[in-house]
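Aim 2 progress update. The chain analyzed this quarter is reproduced below.
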Amino acid sequence: MPTASTPTAEPLWRKRLRRMIGQARPKGRAGFVLPLRPQIFAVGLLALAALLLQPSVAAAQATPDSVATQIKASADGKLRDFYRTRGYWPLWVREGKVGPEADRLIQLIETSRLDSLDPGDYDLKDLRKSLEAARSGTPAALAAAEMELSQTLANYVRDLRRPSTIKISYLDQELIPVRPSQADVLRAAALAPSFHDYVENAAWMSPIYVRLRDALASYPERWGRLPLVAIPSGPKMRTGSKDSRVRLLRRRLGFAEGTKFDKPLAAKLREFQADHGLQADGIAGDTTVAALNRGPAYYTGLLRLNLERAKLLPSAYTRHIVVNAAAARLWTYEKGKEQDTMKVIVGKPNEQTPMLAGMMRYATLNPYWNVPSDLVRNRIAPKVLNGASFAKMNYQALADWSTNPQVIDPVAIDWSAVAQGRQNLRIRQLPGKTNAMGRVKFMFPNDLGIYLHDTPDKALFKEKQRWFSSGCVRLEDAPRLGKWLFGKPMAASSDEPEQHVPLPDGVPVYLTYLTASPTESGIEFLQDGYGRDAAQMRRIAGR
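Predicted structure tokens:
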């Protein structure tokens, strides 16, 4: 306590004010301090006010702890469940301010009609008010913005994860989608290695979905504002052509009136071809003219249809495989991004690869191949009847379809009855270099007999449209896929047939059908070889 002999210490703010006023007073020639001028006195009072207010402003500035305290005091319902598990620590607020992820979320909501959602369902006006108030930096305002951002994200992602109108067969109960809770949505965001990247890339959806969404957003600006001009069929048009239809082509692609097929027109045509999955040669043949005549409404409808198909795919943070039968291509995903891609061969238009999702459980090395009955009847039986050696063809005839069937002597078989379809016969090809399954097949058990497998016939991978199988998926590089699945190269321990190697953890496989598909340079519109687009587009348009 201060006493008479111990003067009370002068407060710091008074010392500072006295020093400032003293420095502000002008001095005479002998160094004497002149009387304080009114203007300078006013400056001193303002300085005093600033000093007095400074502690209270500093006290109001947010720290993570102070924001967490405000969240704990005001969070309720499902949000409280999420924040309680993380000690009420903020997700969106860092260093006393809301992060840039908020702007990206608002952008996604503003454009949510691309997702077939209504932006009006998300009350962006209130969200913006909260973000504006959060600029004050006070813990209460930041906490309010934090919770409103989390609520908006949770609602948006939950709406995106409503059941798709496109149907797919789920082989395993665990793959049937369940609409996530608010806490599930926020927990996935919080556990992402980078929250910024998670929101920026809309990583709660498949990367394929995000790429298609971006394409739908940009398509009207890029191709939707050009004149709709019908171009009749006729000879190919190319640089230097004098065809009367060149005038129509120029108008269709937004060029000035004229009849000259010049280099700028050819360049624009190549852009159109590249963006629509056509050979970008700058030549207007029948296929290109047909694409031009469809108009932008058709292609935006096609993008919307394929967005709906892509909704069935999981986030890239789920380790999984996607096979697109329309593109005859496979992708692997893990840790939030694409890991690999390769060509595949899929079912013929009359033996289509179905849309299904299943858990890959194991691989089989040195596999048998059970020959389809039509091939037994139409290929193998006629060869035997013409004198070919059944044994040298590396086949076995079996008594039934059990796990351990009896082998039948081919001499005892009525091959004429087999060839005429009067006798059904199970035939399997033994393992070896010529086996149709190659060295390995990857199994996700199903009643349709569909799986991924190696193949000895690599020549067909050079084809652009690779619809040659009976429904199964032939792999361009099966050993590479095996290494990704198992984390090491696969090798059989012996020549013994059918060596089953279980996966430590099942890996989801999605067989889908996307006639608009991402490429390295953009989006490719693909031929609807299975004839599924028209009916499904009508269904989507009629919602």
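The first helix runs from residue 12 to 24. The CA atoms of residues 114 and 213 lie 7 Å apart. These observations will guide the mutagenesis experiments scheduled for the next reporting period.
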